[in-house]
Design a protein that fits this description.
Layout (H helix, E strand, L loop, with lengths): L10 H6 L3 H5 L12 H6 L3 H16 L11 E5 L5 H8 L5 E6 L2 H10 L7 E4 L12 E7 L10 H11 E12 L4 H8 L12 H11 L1 E9 L10 H6 L8 E8 L2
């Protein structure tokens, strides 16, 4: 069964639907929904969830340990308070880090709270375009971002991720799994997800392919909560089953 990928809206339509204010109002105290008791039961902090994804990414790219990745450039699209970028740095990623977000408030908080070495390049994104040159990054990541973007606008941003990825570069999309009832319950009770529209693995893969990425695949993550990190090796053996709290969809820019 095919999956239709919505055509992008015009720049003016996108600008009118910019969720900037929505995210700015959450910036100062943003904790990635950790006020939800079930999410706190799964992990002690937002950093715990970010580290699961950072671990997956570094293993997938073979960048574990030492000076791994020093010559690479990574972009976190929709970086928020840079929690994911901090996790990458703590876990040993030695490459160049950049991030952008629709919310100026989130960027200010990210810069104010950065505490793991030299600050990354962080900036506010434009209404319909990433503020970076074409083919600038070896790795482009969107961590729990696309469910905040209205479906009709998503193709614009997948296209932008393709534009800024270098030939042979990788695009990694982490998203909430709409097939997981616990995930749906948490999202429905999280303030910053009030206007969220969850997307399936199939939609994410179809959108990556539509943008031009190939070698696409999807894996389940967070089959077990972050608190049970010792079960992660088992989780990796179950990654093809769509049962995790989140999933990762990945692709490669044709080189």
């Amino acid at each position: 069964m095919s999956v239709d990928v919505p055509e992008p809206e015009s720049a003016s339509q996108t600008a009118h639907r910019e969720p900037k204010a929505e995210f700015d109002q959450h910036a100062a105290g943003y904790d990635a929904g950790m006020d939800n008791w079930l999410k706190r039961l799964a992990g002690a902090s937002a950093e715990d969830f970010a580290e699961v994804k950072a671990d997956w990414l570094l293993r997938y790219l073979g960048l574990i340990g030492g000076e791994a990745g020093r010559s690479t450039r990574l972009l976190d699209f929709g970086c928020g308070k840079a929690t994911f970028l901090k996790a990458l740095r703590r876990m040993g990623y030695a490459g160049d880090l950049s991030g952008c977000d629709v919310s100026e408030g989130m960027i200010r908080e990210a810069l104010r709270t950065w505490d793991v070495g030299p600050r990354p390049q962080l900036c506010t994104q434009l209404p319909d375009r990433l503020p970076f040159d074409a083919q600038s990054f070896d790795i482009v990541v969107a961590s729990a971002v696309f469910h905040h973007i209205p479906p009709a606008q998503r193709a614009i941003w997948y296209g932008e991720l393709y534009r800024v990825a270098r030939a042979g570069g990788r695009c990694i999309v982490f998203e909430h799994n709409p097939w997981n009832p616990i995930t749906r319950w948490v999202v429905s009770r999280t303030a910053i997800d009030a206007n969220a529209s969850l997307l399936s693995q199939r939609e994410a893969i179809a959108a990556l392919r539509h943008a031009g990425f190939d070698e696409t695949f999807a894996n389940a993550i967070m089959i077990f909560p972050p608190r049970l990190g010792f079960l992660r090796p088992i989780e990796r053996t179950l990654a093809r089953l769509p049962i995790g709290g989140q999933y990762v969809a990945a692709g490669r820019r044709r080189g």
